């Protein structure tokens, strides 16, 4: 059956996958990377095999864009920070309309438009000598960020289903980190603030790497559909208001926001500021901490996927929250011993433990959103996920800046730990409302069948 499945054509395979999402390929228990790869359809292999290369260009530029604007182009630091915020603000603005367009026209069309904006934006930024040109470039990059999250998540969800989907999201996250991490290391050795041409080169490379997903969408993935066929007899699909009114979606969105607020929202602002100002460690230690973050995710992600397979995703989120609470307490301990070896060890330990928690977040939350969605509203569900993520990423640095600027170091750590407790409570609220299959456990009918088969009066199945 598996061999027959592999030999089917691209369009036919996509159609049959929707009709038989409970088939062998989607529910194969993955016990190793080889098994996972064999269980993937061809489209999934194409998409996953290019992730690290696609994100390499982003890793080249992400840590150094503000340095480029301030030290190379000579913009004031405050203005450079404001320009950088345009990426997140634009992304948040276009996420909602982007999700609607994905449901109406498909992810391929929207992603191609976003990637085109990314190419133009990176090219403009490579030669931007005025704040106005830089602003236009960063807005175009923000447009891509706003549509790429829901677009690629919808694409992934259309290619894989069931337990394989959760594993795919996790491995995809590890490869994204690998590409960004390697790109950051290469960029750190290559760029020179006294040579603007080095920055021009990395931004042009970032633009060129966007050609890879464009080629995939126009080639091997051209038959993948992320939106359902229009049916005049089908009930109308509700908009964002109807989706967010569902209690499970509301609680899940709040959980996502809090997770990002105390997680990724602190990685570019709160954590470096606390490590430098309170723990008083060197910039080299902070750089090494980010390298540890990438290494832990890449090395442990597949192991964690095997450990959480078959468990309730809400319970995995609770374990993640407890792990993160420990990491923030470690960072707080580093702040009690400033400018010491113990402080440096505490900072490094924080990032290693925090990264372990990250390996539990990315496989679960996107999978829940896509298991709750249908093909007719998948883009909007992923847009809600993206908006919650971006909202937390915007609010996190603001809160960190206010607390640390006023010397409220202990309160900063306390807010992070309280946020971890909030994740535990929100996960409990989601668990009471979420369908069993969306929570990563067998459906109720499957459980009833198992109970019946164990009954002494139950007939024996051949």
From TrEMBL:
This is MFS transporter. PROSITE patterns: MFS (PS50850). Pfam families: MFS_1. Keywords: Cell membrane, Membrane, Transmembrane, Transmembrane helix, Transport. Signal peptide: none annotated. The lineage of its organism: Bacteria, Bacillati, Actinomycetota, Actinomycetes, Micrococcales. SUPFAM superfamilies: MFS general substrate transporter. It comes from the Bacteria. The keyword GTP-binding does not apply. Residues 440-462 are annotated as: Disordered. Residues 1-433 form the Major facilitator superfamily (MFS) profile domain. It is a multi-pass membrane protein. InterPro entries: MFS (IPR011701), MFS_dom (IPR020846), MFS_trans_sf (IPR036259), MFS_Transporters (IPR050171).
């Amino acid at each position: 059956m598996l061999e027959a499945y592999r030999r089917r054509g691209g369009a036919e395979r996509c159609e049959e996958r929707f009709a038989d999402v409970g088939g062998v390929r989607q529910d194969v228990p993955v016990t190793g990377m080889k098994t996972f790869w064999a269980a993937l359809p061809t489209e999934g292999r194409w998409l996953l095999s290019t992730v690290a290369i696609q994100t390499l260009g982003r890793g080249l530029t992400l840590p150094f864009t503000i340095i480029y604007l301030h030290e190379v182009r000579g913009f004031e630091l405050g203005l450079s920070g404001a320009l950088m915020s345009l990426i997140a603000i634009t992304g948040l603005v276009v996420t909602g309309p982007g999700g609607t367009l994905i449901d109406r026209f498909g992810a391929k069309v929207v992603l191609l438009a976003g990637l085109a904006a990314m190419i133009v934006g990176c090219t403009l930024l490579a030669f931007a000598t005025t704040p106005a040109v830089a602003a236009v470039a960063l807005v175009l990059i923000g447009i891509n960020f706003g549509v790429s999250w829901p677009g690629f998540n919808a694409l992934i969800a259309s290619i894989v289903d069931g337990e394989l989907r959760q594993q795919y999201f996790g491995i995809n996250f590890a490869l994204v980190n690998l590409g960004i991490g390697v790109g950051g290391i290469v960029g750190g050795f290559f760029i020179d603030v006294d040579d603007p041409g080095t920055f021009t080169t990395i931004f042009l490379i970032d633009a060129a790497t966007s050609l890879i997903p464009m080629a995939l969408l126009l080639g091997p993935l051209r038959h993948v559909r992320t939106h359902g066929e229009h049916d005049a007899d089908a009930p109308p699909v509700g908009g964002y208001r109807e989706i967010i009114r569902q209690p499970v979606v509301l609680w899940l969105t709040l959980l996502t926001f809090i997770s990002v607020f105390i997680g990724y929202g602190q990685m570019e602002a709160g954590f470096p500021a606390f490590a430098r100002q309170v723990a008083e460690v060197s910039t080299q230690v902070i750089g090494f901490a980010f390298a540890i973050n990438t290494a832990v995710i890449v090395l442990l992600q597949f192991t964690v996927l095997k450990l959480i397979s078959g468990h309730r995703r809400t319970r995995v989120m609770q374990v993640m929250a407890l792990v993160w609470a420990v990491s923030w307490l470690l960072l707080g301990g580093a702040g009690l011993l400033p400018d010491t070896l113990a402080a440096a060890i505490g900072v490094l330990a924080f990032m290693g433990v925090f990264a372990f928690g990250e390996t539990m977040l990315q496989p679960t939350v996107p999978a829940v959103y896509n298991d709750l969605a249908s093909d007719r509203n998948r883009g909007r569900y992923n847009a809600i996920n993206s908006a919650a993520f971006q909202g937390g990423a915007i609010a996190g640095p603001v809160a960190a800046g206010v607390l640390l600027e006023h010397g409220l170091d202990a309160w900063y750590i306390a807010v992070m730990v309280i946020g971890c407790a909030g994740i535990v409570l929100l996960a409990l609220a989601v668990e009471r409302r979420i369908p069993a299959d969306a929570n990563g456990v067998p459906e109720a009918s499957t459980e009833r069948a198992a109970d019946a088969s164990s009954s002494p009066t139950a007939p024996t199945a051949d």
